[in-house]
């Protein structure tokens, strides 16, 4: 058998194996993605319970908006969960105490927005300042 024919015959035998390998690789990638998503799953009732437990009493602060979002990190199979809060405080500096507490609890990348005074008809109330806090929710231990 001439060498060219032998090479062609071998290539014919390998071709189905290559197609099979491609299917297996695609399936493997899907499984890895699913496992990454499962590992990064959050348990929102637990997260809310922690936030509620450490939040200052309503005489000192109140949350006017809380948003949770989960999105994939760039070039990663894991997802990042964030909590974003808008709150009002009665005394300056209270938001920094709360953000420090969040860091101690394992929340990462905690950012405190600019403090703005409450004005207008709402200024006569207990709360004097508006704030924003963003933080990455800690991963659930495996």
- Count structural domains: 2
Number of β-strand runs? 5
Sequence stretches where pLDDT stays below 50 over 5 or more residues: none
Question: Looking at the chains present, what oligomeric state does this protein adopt?
Answer: single chain
Gyration radius (Cα, Å) is: 26 Å
Count of DSSP helices?
3
Which structural class do the helices and strands define? alpha+beta
N-to-C SSE string, H for helix and E for strand: HHEEHEEE
Q: What's the rounded overall pLDDT mean?
A: 82
CATH topology of the largest domain: Gyrase A, domain 2
What is the CATH architecture assignment of the largest domain? 2-Layer Sandwich
Structure, described:
Strands 1, 2, 3, 4 and 5 form a five-stranded antiparallel β-sheet that branches. This protein has helices at 3-39, 44-54, 94-104; strands spanning 61-72, 79-89, 108-112, 116-117, 129-136. With 142 residues, the protein is α+β, with helices and mostly antiparallel strands. It is rod-shaped, with a radius of gyration of 26 Å. It has two domains: 1-39; 44-136, Gyrase A, domain 2.
């Amino acid at each position: 058998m001439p060498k060219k024919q032998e090479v062609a015959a071998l290539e014919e035998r390998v071709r189905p194996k290559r197609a099979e390998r491609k299917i297996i690789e695609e399936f493997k990638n899907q499984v890895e993605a699913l496992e990454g998503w499962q590992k990064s799953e959050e348990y929102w009732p637990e997260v809310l319970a922690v936030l509620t437990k450490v939040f200052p009493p309503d005489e000192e602060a109140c949350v006017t908006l809380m948003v949770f979002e989960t999105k994939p990190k760039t070039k990663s199979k894991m997802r990042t969960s964030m909590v974003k809060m808008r709150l009002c405080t009665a005394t300056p500096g209270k938001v920094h105490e709360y953000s420090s507490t969040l860091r101690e609890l394992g929340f990462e990348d905690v950012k405190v927005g600019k403090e703005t005074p409450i004005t207008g008809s709402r200024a006569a109330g207990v709360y004097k300042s508006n704030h924003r806090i963003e933080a990455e929710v800690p991963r659930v231990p495996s």
